[in-house]
Specification:
InterPro entries: 4_helix_cytokine-like_core, IL-11, IL-11_fish, IL-11B_fish. Helices cover 64% and strands 0% of the residues. The chain is mainly α. Helix 5 (88-115) runs antiparallel to helix 6.
């Protein structure tokens, strides 16, 4: 029994070394420091998106049931199958494409607000958070050695009336909040895939 003790200790040390070294995928573990800043940007963006239209709950009733017209915005998938099949590189690329699309539309909405003399401060703030998120996602992809998807800027039609600006502001607010909640769920899943330490 005493003779087997050193061998048992040796095996236990090897097992501990294996546990410490093997679970975290080497390809994405350097990204662990990037996820929290992304989530912080999404939290700020979510708070800012609630202020895009400056309407009261009573005034928002006017826009209930109004058909959404921002068809070029990303269509978010919430299925369990989608979240269970996430891959780090593909998910970061998708997040970057979605972020760029929302930023393009937010900048377009900001210009429309200024053209009809409506406050664009919150819209400009949302655009700033989207830009920072885009930079973080780009840096993450480059850190992984992945190709950064090209930026696309399709033209968006001008908005002619203040009512349409408000209608699009309400829709943008709703779609941005969905995007923020979905993106945080994706990042949480990626943190687990990279075996990042929990805080």
């Amino acid at each position: 029994m005493h003779g087997s003790a050193p061998r048992l200790l040796h095996l236990l040390l090897l097992a501990e070394l294996f546990v410490r070294s093997s679970p975290r995928p080497a390809h994405c573990s350097p990204l662990c420091g990037m996820f929290r800043p992304m989530v912080l940007q999404l939290n700020s963006l979510n708070n800012m998106s609630k202020k895009l239209h400056h309407l009261t709950d009573h005034e928002l009733v006017i826009f209930e049931g109004v058909e959404h017209r921002l068809d070029d915005l990303p269509h978010i998938q919430h299925t369990a199958a989608h979240f269970s099949s996430l891959k780090v590189n593909e998910s970061l690329s998708q997040l970057l494409r979605y972020t760029r699309s929302f930023r393009l539309h937010v900048d377009w909405l900001k210009t429309a607000k200024e053209n009809v003399s409506l406050s664009s401060r919150s819209t400009g703030g949302a655009g700033a958070h989207l830009l920072r998120l885009s930079d973080l996602l780009t840096a993450s992809l480059l850190q992984m050695g992945e190709e950064v998807p090209p930026s696309l800027s399709p033209p968006l039609a001008p908005i002619s009336t203040a009512f349409d600006v408000l209608r699009f502001s309400v829709e943008m607010s709703e779609r941005l909040m969905v995007f923020c909640n979905w993106s945080k769920r994706v990042l949480l899943r990626l943190q687990r895939l990279c075996d990042c330490p929990r805080r």
